[in-house]
Amino acid sequence: MWDMSASTEIQVYRRTFALAILLLAAVAFGVGKLAYLQFLGPPVSVPSGAPAQNLPEGTPTEGTVQAMPTPEVVLPSVRGNIYDCHGYLLAVSSAVYDISAAPRQVTDTQVLAERLAPLMGKPRAKLLELLELDAKYVPLGRGLRAEVKDKIMAWKLGGVQVELRPSRIYPHGPLAACILGFVTDDGKAGYGLESYYDDLLAGKDGSRETAHDALGSLSYQFVPPRDGADLFLTLDRNAQYIVEEALAQAVANSEAKKGVAIVMEPASGAILAMAVLPSYDPNTREVDDPGVYTNSAISEHYEPGSVFKILTMAAALDAGIISAASTYYDQGLIVIGGEEIENSDRLAHGETSMHELLAQSLNVGAAYLSSELGALKFYVYLRRFGFAELTGVDLAYEAPGRVRFPGDREWHESDLATNSFGQGLAATPLQMLCAVSAVANRGVLMRPYIVARIEHGGTVTETVPQAVRQAISPEAAVQVTEMLVYAVDHVLTSAAIPGFRVAGKSGTSEVAVEGRYDPEETIASFAGYVPADEPRFAILVTLHHPQKEHWGAKAAAPVFGEIAQRLLSLYAVPPDSVRANVRGQ
């Protein structure tokens, strides 16, 4: 009995031990497999002899192998739209198609070139030349519409490939190109609003990433894309068209090399129109000189010339060194800092009023005012009007202008005289218009802006007009306005508009060439506002290097008058007499 019992116990012990070993082995195998799955993913069946080019290096190609996790898929966001103040589209994202070909796979290049030419608007010979190249791949066309793509795909020709890509479309072509900027085919924003607001417009791409859990099941991590914001501008496309048309005609008539025109609301700083010529079509961006992309209204300096006398007069009145009734004796010459200053007509005008000083645009009178102010006060007023600093407009690549101040190494006492009539300093056209608008706005300088509101994901952000500072007193501003009305009524009559009092001043600045001023190379300009008592529009026109007419009074003043008259009609602004009657009721 004892021997039997001992034998049974030994057998039981051996069986238990063997079972424990098996269990331990199974556990070890399971843990190992879990770890393997965790890091390498689930198994995928690969037939014997299958190509291994898509598998990790060293992976066997027969039997069962493990696939790597699926890479992240980018879910692109949609770029926001840009609208004018009435809700008309100025820039919108869309889908276009690019067509390419593999010449070695095209069976009949003659037929393909013949069929593609009318659809793509390209010469048959040019397409045939591309199709007969000894190359693996040739691009044939970009930015095709969906209907063109559909026709090409319906042919079912070998060797032809059509690819979808996002695109930016500007429905009005060159209209407001200097404001909008552009987006390139590879999605890069350039210039204007497209660049300044790129982060908001572009939105944020989403993603989808495939992963595997410990048991080999698929799971997804999904981050939805956030589309870009929509911009609604202060720009009125109708006003923009009026300004561009008038400026184009003026540039052609005067044979100018360049032209700039800007329209602002003096009370708010809102920009209604801004035109720069030569221009370009942001849809194609086909230009000989990339410098055309630069918005000269905000990015390039110029010497304003006699338009600047508006501000010299405003400073002198505000500082109290003269009154509107003051006079001075004009001898036709004044010497300041060793520099002889003459009037542009080379005449002496004798006893002269402040009204005549501006109307006749007398350099001697302006230099007299700045010398009476003194350097300290004169340049304090230049800063108050915003010169030598950015206006803060919401457009890309704004320049601050350039002014030499007392204490600067290059400043000379003669600058006090030449600066008084807009020579020897540099400003952008927008800076100049903002300063004139401050006079129109009872002395308050406003920050210019172009985006009225931003809509993004159900949130609306409105732009609130922002006063920068009180540049001069309201009383001084009104006095200058009356002088500018006198100038238009008595001298600058080509800027006058029947039924409205117009305040304005012309300017003709000489251009520095090789260290000296060339009287034959000028910038003709005119700045003003209307109606003078309740300004709706402040307008600046500049014509650079006009060949047929050099003077601002003759070249630029009529352009101002045309733009102003058409805008008054567009916005149905009542004449002065009607508004006066309404106020009297």
Essential attributes:
about 575 residues, Beta-lactamase, Penicillin-binding protein 2a (Domain 2), 25 strands, single chain, alpha+beta, disordered N terminus, elongated, about 25% strand, 7-stranded mixed β-sheet, 19 helices
Helix content: 25-40%
- Report the span from N to C terminus: 134 Å
CATH superfamily annotation of the largest domain: DD-peptidase/beta-lactamase superfamily
Name the shape in a single word: elongated
What is the count of distinct domains? 2
Describe what you observe in this structure.
- By secondary structure, the protein is α+β, with helices and mostly antiparallel strands.
- It folds into 2 domains: 74-105 and 115-122 and 130-233, Alpha-Beta Complex (Penicillin-binding protein 2a (Domain 2)); 237-284 and 294-584, Beta-lactamase, CATH 3.40.710.10.
- Helices cover 35% and strands 24% of the residues.
- It contains 19 helices and 25 strands.
- Strands 4, 5, 6, 7, 12, 20 and 21 form a 7-stranded mixed β-sheet that branches.
- Strand 10 (206-212) and strand 11 (218-223) form a beta hairpin.
- It is elongated.
